[in-house]
Predict the 3D structure of the following.
Amino acid sequence: MNQSFITQSEDETISVGFQFGETLTPGSVVALFGDLGTGKTRLIKGLCKGLGVAEHVSSPTFTIVNEYHGKCCKIFHFDFYRMNSITELKEIGFDEYIYNDGVCVIEWADRVEKLLPPDRFNVFLKLGANENEREIRIEKIGDTKS
Ligand SMILES: Nc1ncnc2c1ncn2[C@@H]1O[C@H](COP(=O)(O)OP(=O)(O)OP(=O)(O)O)[C@@H](O)[C@H]1O
Ligand SMILES: [Mg+2]
């Protein structure tokens, strides 16, 4: 089911992420699309809480992927903002992560769009009408359950 939200603070975005995270299951892939500062990492913070992650969640700046431990499974947090080539993707074995039993969340998913699995969630984030407003749309693509 597709869902749209308008949030007025980072806490509200975290809470959207939390509720979404609670619905995810092992193997879920979540691709996030949105410019700098639109709230991708904040949403993932909530999503991870919803999956029972107790570890600190922040963008993997010096590596491409961060790994957390949730109740159902591992969560792999990718950020492709600084990715330079598809070779880097092959080096980290991206396919093995996304076709596996963890939950994968991907910032800057447009940079790897061709490699994303057909069954997934797309999350679009945009700046809203004022400084702290964000528009968030969650779309289910393919047959992903939940
Ligand atoms: N409604 C809101 N939802 C989320 N973040 C908000 C909101 N209002 C203001 N903010 C601020 O916007 C910023 C969002 O940062 P965040 O790191 O989550 O964005 P991002 O999309 O991951 O950016 P990047 O592309 O740099 O990784 C934070 O500084 C946060 O405090
Ligand atoms: Mg981020």
